[in-house]
Each structure stands twice: as structure tokens, then as C-alpha cells.
Write a structure and sequence with these properties.
Number of helices: 5
Number of strands: 0
CATH superfamily: lambda repressor-like DNA-binding domains
Helix content: 55-70%
CATH architecture: Orthogonal Bundle
CATH topology: 434 Repressor (Amino-terminal Domain)
């Protein structure tokens, strides 16, 4: 699973729309959509930490590989 897919899965798990997450981050909905779809393909650690904080999850929840 890609980072973007994990972000989307966590966003949906906590019950947020892209717009609600964008509001929490101070971003546009388009920027959230782009991140969930792999643009940029390798976001900065600070970006991932900001998203994790907005979702209320540890960074590891977004960057760890899924168990097989």
C-alpha cells in the first residue's frame, strides 16, 4: 500500500472527508487529493507529520509497511 493510500485509509477510518482534512491542515481539498494520489511521490517528513497530527494518528500509522 502506498503512502497516499494509507493516508486515505486513515482519513476514512477517522470519518473525515478530504475537505475536512484540508481544513484541519490549512490546505485546499485539491492538495489533499494530490497527496492521496501520490503527488508528490515522496513528501517531506514534516508534511507527513502534519497530516498524521491532523488525523490524530502516529506517523508510523502512515509510513509503516502493511503486514502481509
Amino acid at each position: 500500500m502506498t503512502l497516499g493510500a494509507r493516508i486515505r485509509a486513515e482519513r476514512e477510518r477517522v470519518g473525515l472527508t478530504q475537505m475536512e482534512l484540508a481544513d484541519r491542515l490549512g490546505w485546499t481539498r485539491q492538495r489533499v487529493w494530490r497527496l492521496e494520489h501520490g503527488d508528490p511521490p515522496d513528501p517531506r517528513e514534516s508534511t507527513v507529520a502534519h497530516v498524521a497530527d491532523a488525523l490524530g494518528v502516529p506517523v508510523d500509522a502512515l509510513v509503516r509497511p502493511n503486514p502481509q
